[in-house]
Amino acid sequence: MITDIRGHYAKPEAKPYPSGPLLPQLTEYLLNAGLSDPLTTIYVTSEPLESLVLVIFLLVLATLEKLTWSPEFATLVCVNRKDPVDGAPFVVGIVTLFKQFHSSHMERFLSYVGQYLRSNISTAQVKGNAVPLAASLVRVVQFLDQLCRFAGISRAVVDRYVPPYIFDRVAC
């Protein structure tokens, strides 16, 4: 069964996804044995929601204002201890939320982030001289770096939306 599933993901057009009564039982056994990945598990399926990606993008921007980068922990941490938000669990929550929807939602989210970064950087440049990135833009890049790590998104995918020189300017 696992070989058939791997074969499907290797060549989705050639092999259909296996089905049958054994698959739910196998999933339950693998879950109980600890042989599952919660970050890639799809818990709920639903119809596409038009504005969901935009709402998540705005939520991320609003939440990033409450976070700062901690080199000690190599993650985003809250600025004010009274704020009940922590960077790594927030990123994992966003990744898990996107896993419940079609992959095009993540692609659109990356395009929003890329457009946001490119537009803010281009307006900040003065007469072609490189200026330091604003702290809010640095946090967005750091969030995006962690999002890619947790979601297993390659740099090549992100480079379609965010130019590589932006990542090179921020040390995560």
Major beta sheet, strand line-up: 1-2
Q: What is the count of DSSP helices, taking H or I runs of 4+ residues? A: 8
Label the overall shape: globular
In total, the number of domains comes to: 2
Binned strand content? under 5%
**Relative helix content:** 55-70%
What string, H for helix and E for strand, traces the elements in order?
HHHEEHHHHH
The rounded Rg comes to 19 Å
Question: How many beta-strand runs?
Answer: 2
Strand-pairing-aware structural class:
mainly alpha
Average pLDDT, rounded to a whole number, is 85
Ends: how far apart? 40 Å
Largest sheet: 2 strands, antiparallel
Which segments are poorly predicted (pLDDT under 50) over 5 or more consecutive residues? none
Structure write-up:
The chain is mostly helical and 172 residues long. The chain has 2 domains: 1-36, no CATH class; 46-169, no CATH class. 56% of the residues lie in helices and 5% in strands. It is built from 8 helices and 2 strands; from the N terminus they run αααββααααα. A two-stranded antiparallel ribbon has the order 1-2. Helix 5 runs antiparallel to helix 6 (135-151). It is globular, with a radius of gyration of 19 Å. It starts with a helix and ends with a helix.
Task: Throw out a few tags for this protein.
8 helices; mainly alpha; 172 residues; two-stranded antiparallel sheet; 5% strand
Topology overview:
Layout lengths: L1 H9 L11 H11 L19 H13 L2 E4 L4 E4 L8 H13 L3 H22 L10 H17 L3 H5 L4 H6 L3
Antiparallel strand pairs: 1-2
Helix pairs in contact: 3-5, 4-6, 5-6
Short description:
The chain has helices at residues 2-10, 22-32, 52-64, 87-99, 103-124, 135-151, 155-159, 164-169; strands at residues 67-70, 75-78. It has 172 residues and is mainly alpha-helical. A two-stranded antiparallel sheet has the order 1-2.
